[in-house]
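To illustrate the input format used throughout this study, we show a single complete record. The first block contains the structure-token representation of the backbone; no residue identities are included at this stage. The design step must infer an amino acid for every position from geometry alone.
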């Protein structure tokens, strides 16, 4: 069950990145991240009020605040890398680091997956790198039109994003499911607060331009992304309460596959043979994990 939930988390994260990326192209990464966090916060807030669920004890709330901060910094570093660097560098390094760190933290915490599961995780980590590699032509075009950072900055942002998002997953695992989904409200509140502060700084540096209502072409993808991200995190909370971080973490890092496929279907972006091979490797890894 934890394997299926991990795949669900990867699907939610990947599709959220797809719709968030569509919005980010039109309105910028910070506005998109802020909107996504607010949408998720409103939805989970309505849910918590409807069932009148407590937020949890002090420890749970502090962990949720830490998770919200780690999530915001992770997405911020990653989107900055996507905007000013090469996605072909940032995406695979970030995803691979999430897989490696969550796997390592799980082992340090005393988790001992079976030999088959370990082999499956190893294949999943390889698949993450393969799937995250864009076609060469697209990579070259991105380099010419968007590249501003050198390799050192790209790697630095990727490592910071991977470490932050791995911290988020580890912290969510520490929270557990005893308090239900209520801690996700605190996660969203912390993330939205940090995002709004960053947006305020950008707005001030731009000279306080006049605020405009978001267009439908921007608003709809943000709402969809916010819903998908919240669903993914709810599934993650459940997956980590049922399974091992060393198994679930690397599986969730397969999310780029669920970004590439809709981009191919709806935006007609090219999928390279390397990416297709990576999806085959990922499938083989998931089978081994499930058998283990």
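Output of the design step:
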């Amino acid at each position: 069950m934890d394997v299926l939930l991990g795949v669900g988390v990867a699907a939610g994260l990947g599709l959220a990145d797809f719709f968030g990326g569509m919005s980010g192209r039109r309105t910028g990464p910070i506005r998109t991240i802020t909107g996504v966090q607010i949408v998720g916060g409103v939805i989970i807030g309505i849910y918590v009020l409807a069932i009148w669920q407590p937020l949890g004890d002090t420890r749970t709330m502090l962990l949720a605040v830490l998770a919200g901060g780690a999530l915001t910094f992770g997405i911020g570093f990653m989107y900055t890398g996507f905007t000013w660097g090469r996605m072909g560098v940032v995406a695979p390094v970030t995803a691979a680091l999430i897989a490696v760190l969550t796997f390592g933290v799980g082992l340090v915490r005393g988790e001992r997956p079976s030999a088959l599961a370990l082999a499956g995780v190893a294949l999943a980590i390889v698949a993450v790198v393969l799937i995250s590699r864009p076609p060469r032509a697209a990579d070259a075009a991105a380099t010419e039109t968007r590249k501003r950072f050198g390799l050192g900055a790209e790697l630095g942002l990727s490592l910071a994003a991977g470490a932050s998002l791995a911290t988020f997953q580890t912290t969510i695992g520490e929270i557990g499911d005893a308090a239900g989904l209520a801690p996700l409200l605190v996660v969203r509140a912390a993330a939205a607060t940090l995002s709004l502060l960053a947006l305020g700084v950008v707005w001030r540096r731009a000279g306080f331009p006049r605020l405009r209502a978001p267009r439908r072409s921007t608003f709809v993808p943000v709402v969809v992304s916010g819903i998908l991200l919240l669903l993914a995190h709810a599934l993650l909370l459940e997956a980590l309460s049922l399974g091992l971080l060393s198994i679930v973490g690397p599986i969730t890092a397969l999310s780029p596959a669920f970004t590439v496929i809709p981009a191919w279907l709806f935006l007609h972006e090219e999928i390279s043979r390397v990416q297709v091979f990576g999806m085959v490797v990922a499938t083989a890894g998931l089978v081994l994990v499930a058998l283990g």
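Structural context for interpreting the output: Residues 138-146 have pLDDT under 50 and may be disordered. The longest helix spans residues 58-84.
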